[in-house]
Design a protein that fits this description.
Mean pLDDT: 90
Shape: elongated
Strand content: 15-25%
Order of helices and strands: HEHHEEHEHEHEEEHEEEHEEEHEH
Number of domains: 2
CATH architecture of the largest domain: 3-Layer(aba) Sandwich
CATH superfamily of the largest domain: Translation initiation factor eif-2b, domain 2
Low-confidence stretches: 262-266
Strand order of the largest sheet: 6-5-4-9-12-14-15
Number of helices: 10
Length: 266
């Protein structure tokens, strides 16, 4: 990975999270801590960050510094929905698995839970996911190269798509941003759609993650029919007509931990 790529990733991560630690970044980027410190020195000289013992924080007054804001009831509900989906997905991961998580809030919640597993290799384009996995002593993160997107803190582009073709994973968890009435999966950007299409070709098992509130929504960029995946994880509040449509295509649907534990083991 070139220095400019590393620095862009560090910038993107700091803009979203406000702080980082050297060890996690070095593990995620597969470079030495000395290399990371040199990158931080350059960014400190630019006034972008302030180095601290073992890491760095976003500089005071930086125009991209995240603002603290009150969490609304709607945001709390969405967070609970994501946690519910992540709990089910966690049960589908076994020690020693090689998996991929595409970027998104559910993927980040799942990554945190994976600390309870061991021997995992997790391929991802999500910077926060990679950092979370890198902080877990018995698991390994592989961050795809590419161009950082500041809004999503994820990597996209032709390099990302070319790199993912070099891997094969047991399971891929694809986070989609909408599922239409016709059971077409959609995502928020063309770059995300392109990456997911390439990544799904490299996976033995494909699992879609989608909040129930995003059914009946179109996220502008078409990913393809839901028949491309073998399993769908969502919330218990998903409308019955979608359940019927998914079952009719012989796709397994999981809506809660209880349903997972009481049904057929994946």
């Amino acid at each position: 990975m070139f220095a400019v790529e590393r620095i862009n990733i560090i910038r993107s991560y700091l803009r979203e999270h406000g702080k980082l630690d050297v060890h996690s970044i070095s593990e995620m980027l597969n470079v030495s801590e000395v290399t990371v410190r040199r990158d931080l020195e350059k960014l400190e000289a630019e006034g972008f960050l302030q180095r601290q013992h073992g890491g760095a924080i976003l500089a005071e007054g930086d125009e991209d510094q995240p603002e603290r804001k009150e969490v609304s009831e709607e945001e709390r509900r969405c967070e609970a929905d994501r946690e519910e989906i992540a709990r089910v997905a966690f049960l589908m991961v076994k020690d020693g698995d090689v998996i991929m998580l595409t970027n998104g809030a559910i993927a980040r919640a799942l990554a945190h839970k994976l600390g309870e597993r061991s021997g995992l290799t997790v391929l991802t384009n999500d910077i926060a996911v990679a950092l979370e996995i890198a902080s877990q002593p018995t698991n390994k993160a592989v961050l795809l190269g590419g161009s950082p997107d500041a809004e999503s803190s994820a990597l996209f582009g032709s390099l990302t798509e070319a790199t993912v073709q070099k891997f094969f994973v047991n399971k891929i968890f694809v986070e989609v941003d909408g599922i239409s009435e016709q059971l077409q999966m959609t995502v928020t950007s063309q770059e995300k759609a392109a990456l997911i299409k390439e990544a799904m070709a490299c996976a033995d098992e494909r699992i879609a993650l989608c909040e129930a509130s995003r059914f009946s929504r179109n996220a502008f960029f078409r990913l393809g029919p839901i028949s491309q995946v073998g399993k769908v994880i969502t919330n218990t509040s998903v409308p019955e007509r979608y359940k019927a449509g998914i079952f009719a295509q012989d796709i397994k649907l999981f809506t809660s931990v209880n349903a997972f534990e009481g049904g057929e083991s994946p």
